[in-house]
Design brief:
By secondary structure, the protein is of the alpha/beta class. The chain is built from seven helices and twelve strands. The chain has helices at about 15-20, 50-60, 105-110, 130, 150-160, 165-175, 200-219, and strands spanning about 1-5, 20-25, 30-35, 40-45, 65-75, 85-95, 95-100, 105, 115-120, 135-140, 160-165, 180-190. The strands form two sheets. Strands 5-11-10-6-12 form a five-stranded mixed β-barrel.
């Protein structure tokens, strides 16, 4: 089985990388590894939608059986405790549209061609470990929310559970290439006025890497 693991930063998958075997480097951001009988490529894209779209589109092909996007995220929902690992089955480019005074209009509302929402309908259930994860909706943004008014506005419009800076871009490429995929993230903070004292990035990364190892051991 051949797997692609995509992450914005090496920090988010470093624990996983340390448990791999026979690691080979191809350039600065692609590593090919073995784990038991699994062939696993790690792709580090850099932060953001543009970099994710470019590098995933460049690397992804039909030799992969499945692709994973691993990372951290912010949660709009206080019921999702910090450290919770989630399966984002639906994601949206929430900033893609137009302003009309105080109102935001999505592509659908503007009746413009394009894709602003991606749902993982075909490939959502790959194994039992993944199926046990909370399934949530997300938004993908260029600017993470840290203003009370903008948080209220985007939540009222789309009702997302979480936000990231890469997820929908990864899903868009996988859907376009028809490669089975999972966007899996761990909550590192709540979406609120920026307060790094409340963030628990090490906990989120630890839980994320542990869950991915559990998945790899189940394949």
């Amino acid at each position: 089985m051949k797997i692609l693991i995509v992450s914005a930063t090496k920090l988010e998958v470093e624990s996983l990388l340390n448990q791999m075997e026979a690691t080979r480097h191809f350039g600065s951001n692609l590593m090919s590894c073995m784990y038991k009988k699994l062939e696993i490529d790690f792709l580090i894209t850099g932060v953001g939608m543009v970099a994710t779209s470019y590098y995933v589109g460049k690397v992804l092909n039909d030799t992969y059986d499945v692709a994973f996007n691993l990372g951290i995220c912010g949660s709009f929902n206080s019921n999702l405790e910090i450290g919770t690992v989630v399966n984002i089955y639906e994601d949206r480019f929430s900033e893609l549209g137009a302003e009309d005074g105080e109102e935001f209009l999505s592509l659908e509302e503007l009746k413009l061609e394009g894709i602003s929402k991606i749902a993982n309908i075909k490939f959502g259930s790959l194994n039992q470990v993944i199926e046990m994860l909370p399934k949530v909706t997300g938004i993908t943004v260029n600017t993470t929310h840290g203003n009370e008014k903008s948080i209220e506005k985007v939540f009222k419009k789309f009702h997302p559970y979480v936000e990231s800076m890469e997820g929908a871009a990864f899903m868009f490429v996988c859907e376009s290439e028809q490669i089975p995929y999972v966007q899996m993230r761990a909550v590192s903070n709540f979406v609120e006025r920026r307060n790094k004292n409340n963030w628990k990035i090490p906990l989120a990364i630890e839980n994320l890497n542990n869950k991915m190892m559990e998945i790899l051991d189940s394949l």
